[in-house]
Amino acid sequence: MSKKNISAAKQTKEDVNLKGTLIMVMILGVVILVFWFGIYGLFLSR
Amino acid sequence: MHLHKYEKIWLVFGLGSLALFLVVIGFAAFWKGTHPQSHIETIDPQNIEANESFKPENLGLTEVADGKYVVNIVASAFNYDLGKEEDGSPTKTIRVPKGSTVLFQITTRDVVHGFQVAGTNVNMMVEPGHISRYETVMKNDGDFTIVCNEYCGIGHHLMFGTVEVY
User: Fold this and answer.
1) Which of B38, B80, B89, B103 is the S-S candidate for B132 at Cβ 3.0 to 4.6 Å?
2) Which domain holds residue B106?
3) Residue B119 predicted with pLDDT over 80
4) Domain match, B29 and B56 both
């Protein structure tokens, strides 16, 4: 593979827009944390 | 290895939560002494009366100190033996004041049963040959139903009782 091709591949990876993925991952993370603390609160209150 | 900037963010987030939850488990197990409700201690299921706690006269509610209670129970298909009332009829309701500390001790002479006081944290599996214990503070008043939540046979739904916190 020529040097030109490698830099082209790298360029493409850097350009991939992962903003939507980041937002989804963070939403999922927050949902897990909210459930965890919600259930822990339930455990403490009963 | 090349990682995208955002990939680093969620990897840190994911590994961070993993580490946090492991620390929580370690804290609960080693500092707070959390363990399964049946904790190694065994009993002969053919002869549970040999254990002081499960002699027929010791079943049911006993006040051991001010605000501290012990409830000894024998589960069997299909009944919870919660002791006897003064008139000799079987106890179906355990009455404790709000804010008291109650230690539930339970075993079974036949098959696997469940013991859950619905609406509280008391929820145990009861296995023949083992003693299950759970100590809790009754923070809220009300009537809490005791249910068997482990299918034990044809009369499974007949296993119930009440804890009344007043």
Assistant:
1) B38
2) 38-165
3) yes
4) no
Same structural domain, B18 and B42: no
Give the one of B4, B10, B139 whose C-beta lies nearest to A25's C-beta. Answer: B10
Contact A22 B13 (CB under 8 A): no
Cβ B69 vs Cβ B96: under 8 Å: yes
The dihedral built from the CA positions of residue B125, B98, B51 and B154, taken in this order, carries a sign that is negative
User: Model ipTM?
Assistant: 0.75
Selected residue of B1, B8, B13 to mutate for chain A interface (largest A Cβ count, 10 A): B13
pLDDT value of residue B39: 87
Closest C-alpha among B85, B64, B81 to residue B126: B81
Question: In terms of domains, do B51 and B128 share one?
Answer: yes
Q: Give the one of A22, A45, A46 whose C-beta lies nearest to B10's C-beta.
A: A22
Q: How many domains does chain B have?
A: 2
Q: What angle do CA B42, B163, B129 make, to 5 degrees?
A: 10
- For residue A10, the chain B residues in CB contact (below 8 A) are 2
Mean pLDDT of B87-112: 94
pLDDT at A4 exceeding the cut of 60: no
Contacts of B121 in chain A (CB under 8 A): 43, 46
Residue B35: beta bridge partners?
A: none
